[in-house]
Sequence to fold (339 residues):
Amino acid sequence: MNIIVTGGAGFIGSNFIFYMLKKHPQYRIICLDKLTYAGNLSTLSSVMDNPQFRFVKLDICDRNAVYDLFEEENPDIIVNFAAESHVDRSIEEPEIFLNTNIIGTAVLMDACRKYGIQRYHQVSTDEVYGDLPLDRPDLFFTEETPIHTSSPYSSSKASADLLVLAYYRTYGLPVSISRCSNNYGPYQFPEKLIPLIIANCLNDKSLPVYGEGLNVRDWLYVDDHCKAIDLIIHKGRIGEVYNVGGHNEMKNIDIVKIMCEALGKSENLITYVADRKGHDMRYAIDPTKIHDELGWLPETKFEDGIQKTIQWYLDNRQWWETIISGEYQNYYESMYGDR
Ligand code: NAD
Ligand code: TYD
Fold:
């Protein structure tokens, strides 16, 4: 089996590559990544010498280069992680999100149509459903929940999902889509909440909490997401959407306090800052479908996953310190400087 994994130098894609090379050592994995600010080749250093692995630096919007790679590698399955993924950046600069997340998805699927594949899998997000009110804890996102996006990021991901389903209906392309809740784990870029808080705690910097910190996210350990995608590409039904999440809803402020405690830092570091524009209140996934059809259940409890994650950031300071000492500093200053 030849699998092209796009965006494999990012957070979830790299964890998926590690997961697949271990679980299916006979598979060949080709990672295609543009290496944007969020892609980091050093993340993949442990698999670079694996004969079953190949890295190709490439933009998914570059049609000719994508077609050449398909011709050369003749892939069976495509798993598309490549995306601009940060909501805050999408609010500042929407256009790049439209190019990569929508046009890039179309280019990949056109290549699939041209060269023929067994499965195109789109890695999507629960953010396409918009948000749920805080005072209705009985409500959850199912696959039938209408698309109702809030940010340029979620709108671009929803557009891509609609295109994927259109390619299924119009061209019969064998597609599937997973919509997962917030992930955490090793190799997450320190602009996202959990690694940002860990890095700031370790550097005794203030911990920025948007608004009142009451927004709720449904956190899933990254390996559980990888396992869900592995199941869907092998056993999931074509043309279907699968929600992925583990009923682990937490308020942002509680997450930040847990980090302070785990790292022995004072909660006085917490600083309430201006809220994100259009900030979604609550995400919560109903994972009944993937459980009933594919037997998927999350395996990592939050207490264990967060401990493993914190330990990883402690053990791999060089990885994230290199990131936050570079161009990221300009981003941090512009995002948080006078917020
Ligand atoms: P990330 O930002 O860490 O990684 C994205 C990767 O895509 C980077 O390696 C980047 O270099 C690459 N990339 C960006 N533009 C590209 C382009 N034009 N061509 C080729 N490569 C390009 O993102 P992540 O958190 O790992 O998310 C991966 C996917 O999962 C995304 O599609 C995201 O929407 C989805 N998702 C993420 C979460 C989460 O909590 N992080 C939850 C649900 C779904
Ligand atoms: P984030 O990790 O950006 O993921 P998403 O917006 O895709 O859910 O943010 C998670 C939550 O944490 C979200 O409600 C915004 C909030 N947040 C902060 O309060 N402070 C921060 O510095 C960041 C990056 C996020």
Remarks:
- The chain is about 45% helix and 15% strand.
- Residues 254 and 323 are 26 Å apart (CA to CA).
- The pocket of thymidine-5'-diphosphate (ligand 2) is lined by residues 87, 182, 192-193, 196, 208-210, 215, 217, 252, 276 (CB under 6 Å).
- The mean pLDDT is 97.
